[in-house]
Amino acid sequence: MNRKYLAAALLGASLLAAPGLAQAQTPQDLTTIGPVATDFQPKKTAWGDPDLRGTWPINDVAEMPVSRPDQFGNRFFKTDEELAREQARVEQLETGYKKEEDEQTIGSGHWIEYQAGSRRTSMVVDPPSGKLPAMTPQADAVYRAGRSSWTPNTAFDWVTDFDSWDRCVSRGFPASMLPFRYNNGIRIYQSPGYVTINLEMLGSRIVPIRSGDPKHWPKEVEAWLGNSVGHWDGNTLVIETTNLKTGDSATRNAYARNGSPLNMATRGVPAWNTIPTSAQAKVTERLTMTGANTITYEMTYADAEVFTAPWTIRFDWTRDDDYAFYEYACHEGNVQVRNYITASRAGRLPQATAEELAEEAGGGGGR
After folding, report:
1. In whole angstroms, what is the distance from residue 251 CA to residue 255 CA?
2. Assigned domain for 188 exists
């Protein structure tokens, strides 16, 4: 957990007025959203590319849902009254955090952060409904048959019953670019011909910059974060990603080897982390500096075998070069996969056998 950042994340801050959160300003029409502004002229690197280098944690959009909740109807933006209620919740949580610290009874504490100030009602900007399109019947069947530690009533027998995030391999893509409840750091490095996107949670992306033919890998070659190739469209970095890991029909869980394109730990997405990824999946990202300390991130996902239509999300990144990355030591001491399997198998034993094993494990018989 990034305690340096979290210690100062909420205290004494009114995020309704936070610099860099352009979306917190009140638009005249709450039901429309304009194109991304492209009039800002960013600094250039020594070799002439727009300079995106810096640290861009996305904690401040962690409470923005991907799909729009029904309560907001056809609005892309919240009212002032809705934002005020969110700010009141922030202040209530701040009091709870301080009480835990004073009493030295810290529970979830700052592991889970809530930050108000996001004017937007959802990340999805297309379809205009603000909601993800439906899955195809075939993909929906695979999704419902999938297995992970998040699926209900799952019998766990082997590692193939867990998703890639359970096993500390990958959050999947583009899920890795969306906020979680913590470890939301993103850091950009640049060198001539390359942009590297370092993710605090499981992964780094090395993106070659090419004009013309992107020259993606052969279709048989797959990777957890896919094959990303970038080019500049004016001052906007455009990244096209293909060759994402698809399922392995040789395993009991047909999609054990792919990461879900969306994680249920990001608000407003389908549950379970079992959305499939087909060989048709393509992700197009656009990173545009809209101010000295703001990047607007826009991403379009298309997979005709899984979703009935492409969908596009958009949200802002805010610079915080004081944000410190720490090691995300996910797998060290990760006993949960084995514990899930052991507990699941024990739960399916006849009651008498389970009691005998429990007595033996507890040192019964005077041992």
Report:
1. 8
2. yes
Dist CA 204 CA 196 (whole Å): 7
Q: How many CB atoms lie within 10 A of CB 253?
A: 21
- Nearest Cα residue to 289 out of 336, 341, 233, 246: 233
In a domain, 357, yes or no: no
**What pTM was computed for the model?**
0.84
Give the whole-angstrom CA distance, residue 264 versus residue 291.
Answer: 31
Does any domain span residue 257?
Answer: yes
pLDDT the model gives residue 91: 72
Contact of 209 with 231, CB cutoff 8 Å? yes
How many domains does the structure of the chain reveal? 1
CA 210 to CA 219: how far, in whole Å? Answer: 19
Q: Say how many Å lie between the first and final Cα of the chain, rounded.
A: 41
Percent of the chain with pLDDT over 70: 81
The residue segments making up the domain with residue 226 are 38-73+124-318
CB atoms within 10 A of CB 344: 14
Inside any domain, residue 51: yes
Are 215 and 303 in contact by the 8 Å Cβ rule? The answer is no
Strand partners, 291: 294
Of the candidates 279, 338, 354, the residue with the CA atom closest to the CA atom of residue 161: 338
Strand order in the sheet with 54-55: 54-55, 186-191, 194-199, 204-208
With a cut of 50, list the residues of the chain below it in pLDDT: 1-24, 249-253, 255-256, 364-367
* Residue 366, Ramachandran bin (φ over 0: left; ψ between -120 and 50: alpha; else beta): left
